[in-house]
Sequence to fold (455 residues):
Amino acid sequence: MSKISVIIKREYITRVRKKSFIIMTILAPILMAAIIILPTVFMMSDKDKDFKKIAVIEDGSDLFRNVIPNTKDAEYVYLENADINELKKNFEAKGYYGILYISPELVNIPNAIQLISKQTPPIGLIDHISGSLEKEIERQKLLAYNIQNLDDILKNINTQVSVQTIKIDDTGKVKETSTGIAMAMAYIGGFLMYMLVFLFGSQVMRGVIEEKTSRVVEVIVSSVKPVQLMMGKIIGIALVGLTQFMIWVILTLGVVTFVRSTVLKKTDITEIAQTIPQSIMTENQLPGATAEASAAEINPQLAEFSKIFESAMNQEWLLIILAFIFYFITGYLLYASVFAAIGSAVDNETETQQFMMPVTIPIILGLMVAVGTMQNPESSIAFWCSIIPLTSPIVMIARIPFGVPLWQLLLSMGLMIITFLAFVWMAAKVYRTGILMYGKKTSWKEIWKWLKYSA
Fold:
């Protein structure tokens, strides 16, 4: 055991002292946030949007005249007695982005409308046009029933509903949750697990190949057993990954504490309620509801951020962190042992291609199922992939934010322990033979012989 500890210490210290480890430990959370936030920011940015002028032509009617309102990105110009065939030839020369052709049959035929342009129009433009026309068609159909003051009635009945999600546990304790937060955590957790398992597992394989090609391993195995060398390398790199993850947890806790004590300090509902004049509290309004409404009116962005932040804090973080550590350790040991066996069986990284496909398919499949889990965490494929050990480290982490029955979690963990022990045992049999094998291209048939070799 002392020899394994020496190898673990060497692998750990060598990697932790590298500048790349320090830089990535600090930059990884920033890069992860950028991957999630920047695409949304870019899509919502209005600076790079081109203003679009669209010619609207109705075929012999004026049912939809001035129905589509102009926006800051587009203007809709209604043309009378225009020949659409002539306009198709030179609409760009006249300054139009495209031609919107509306047929009177649109009331009965949903696709009796065309947007003609030389570019594929953005989805926002399509949604704005279709949404405006749908409302007008509904209004015209209601008018056929001769309802008095229809426009006023439609304005009064226009209502928006925001569903508040409340989670109740077996003890009857309730707390507010957020499906959006759970989806974000499922995506981040699944992707982070995929990245760490694949990244550190690949490091094991590359380290084994480097020691084998440089013949350093021949010197090392003269003092330790090949299995001890393999386990020392795997555990040492696992500790590097855990160190990195715990640093991320500590940094996140620091950011959360800072935000809660500074940014959100002034959004406390009780404090706001005390500053609201009693005259604005009517007899039919509750103080809490008034305070929340007033908070939103005073600073809507900060109030919304406060709500999202509190919803995020209501997640079962202890369970999430402990489950992540467990699945990282077991998932990493499972795949790292396979990567170590592959590294020992080849003479260079080029030869690893024939063995990597069967290993990477379950990891990629787990990531794909984890992304789908955000939409339906209780689906059959999400359940089975969270139980099957080859995909459970990624998929179960994606399911936990939505709530997983205890028996499913325990079953998944039990199968995970049994499977990684079996994989480590098989990888050790391949490693002890392959690490000293040179000059021969290894095949799957050869590896099978090494597994059956008992000497």
Remarks:
- The longest helix spans residues 226-263.
- The beta strands are 52-58, 74-78, 98-102, 113-117, 165-168, 174-177.
- Residues 75 and 331 are 55 Å apart (CA to CA).
